């Protein structure tokens, strides 16, 4: 046996040993009784800002969304209200079950994608860009109609494989820091990362106003920011990985009440 | 551009201390940030706020670059008479926004 072969076997053995150390016990998912909204762990001042509709800056977008809902647009010259009527009744509970399975695409789509599809198919209008003020305003207005209602995403049998795909990404180590979503949000929630409390990461209030952003943002923006934080390459807006994560996270938060537009630090 | 959100009680008793809340959509670009192209982003902020009660000024504020985006103001006044409480924001690049609310004092 040559020295080179011995070296190879040696390094392989070291590699296995490292791997054995590095692979954590499978992250335990949070028991339903232990779940808490990110609202519960933020400061009283930020909670007060969210609770008062006159002080919650997200309401500026909700108000814009109400205007857009009634505005005729596109080649079809139709407004959302022309098909869906009064959003306060027709959109009640809708955001609480999104992302929902779309039979035409044979995959789940989130609220933003549903609004974009409506815009293209029914209004014959140019689609809004992801994170544009108009798309955020409409999705905030629609999601606001589910305020206080429990999340039901994932109840559909057809969603099962997508929940599984999302869970796989949630538990996958990524980026230069080589950590998974679960290592923070399942294993270490409630502890501090620098000065901030690590939340469990339940997306109950999207689109939400982040004080850090000084504006409203979608769940996909939040996911991209998290990936950037672990020095992984963020998935592009509309990517299937983002969709799978959204599905998994909403399913993981099932039963928790919606609080769009939430305010978060 | 979205309208400001104003919160003034619709009715009050004469002599009551009432809370007024205003929230307005504005980027409040500080003028200290550089864009991804390395060029300084020019300052674009609200510089002044004024509130009048039946034409009489009851509250005024000057704004500076350290004020957060979408400024929220809350302040108090005494309900003296029925009428209109008017609000005016002015700022860089000719920015001007107004709003008003009616109050019935009995």
Give the helices and strands, then pairings:
The complex is a heterodimer of chains A (265) and B (106).
Chain A: H1 3-22, H2 44-51, H3 58-70, H4 80-84, H5 87-90, E1 100-102, E2 107-109, H6 111-121, H7 133-144, H8 160-170, H9 181-185, E3 192-193, E4 196-197, E5 208-210, E6 215-217, H10 219-229, H11 240-252, E7 263-264
Parallel strand pairs in A: 5-7
Antiparallel strand pairs in A: 1-2, 3-4, 5-6
Helix pairs in contact in A: 3-7, 6-7, 8-11, 10-11
Chain B: E1 5-7, E2 11-12, E3 17-23, E4 46-53, E5 56-62, E6 72-78, E7 83-91, E8 95-105
Parallel strand pairs in B: 2-8
Antiparallel strand pairs in B: 1-3, 3-6, 4-5, 4-7, 7-8
User: What structural class do helix, strand and pairing data of chain B support?
Assistant: mainly beta
Classified in CATH, the superfamily of chain A is: Cytochrome c-like domain
Rg of chain B (CA only): 16 Å
What percent of residues of chain B are in strands?
over 45%
* Largest interface in this structure: A-B, 16 and 15 residues
Average pLDDT number of chain B: 96
**Residue ranges of chain B: pLDDT <50 for 5 or more in a row?**
none
CATH class of chain B: Mainly Beta
Helix content of chain A: 40-55%
Distance between the amino and carboxyl termini of chain B? 35 Å
Count of discrete alpha- or pi-helical segments spanning 4 or more residues of chain B: 0
Tell me the series of helices and strands of chain A, N- to C-terminal: HHHHHEEHHHHEEEEHHE
* Portion of residues within helices of chain B: under 10%
Instruction: Strand order, main sheet of chain A: write it out.
Output: 6-5-7
